[in-house]
Amino acid sequence: MLNDAPVSAILPATDLDRAKSFYKDKLGLKQADWDMKDPVVFEAGKGTRLVIYHRAEGTKAEHTVAGFIVDDVEALVKELKAKGVAFENYDQPGLKTVDHIASFGPVKSAWFKDSEGNILALNQM
Fold this sequence. Notes:
By secondary structure, the protein is of the alpha+beta class. The chain is built from two helices and ten strands; from the N terminus they run βαββββαβββββ. The protein has a single domain, classed as Roll (2,3-Dihydroxybiphenyl 1,2-Dioxygenase, domain 1). It has a four-stranded mixed sheet with strand order 1-4-3-2, covered by helices on one side. A hairpin with an 8-residue loop joins strand 2 and strand 3. It is globular.
């Protein structure tokens, strides 16, 4: 039914201009042509999109809301840190990061928050 339908993450922002700057300047995403000011749509890899909309209350999620599948987590963590992105660190049963990266067999993941507090992940699979 939906197995061929692209999916996009839809995230809230209390400050749409700040979020737009974060996604463009820090993460390097390209803003899609869109006739509306809200939501803001960004193009990501392989035809996927990230949609950011204004919400006065902001995010309430304390979990990962979107993940980027990447080829080299270590290199990307270094590159994003150089642009000012702060990565999360975890030390709990089943989840421990070393230099901001957790390993689950062949899978490596790192987490960071966007300018609005949404938790995003980098996943190397």
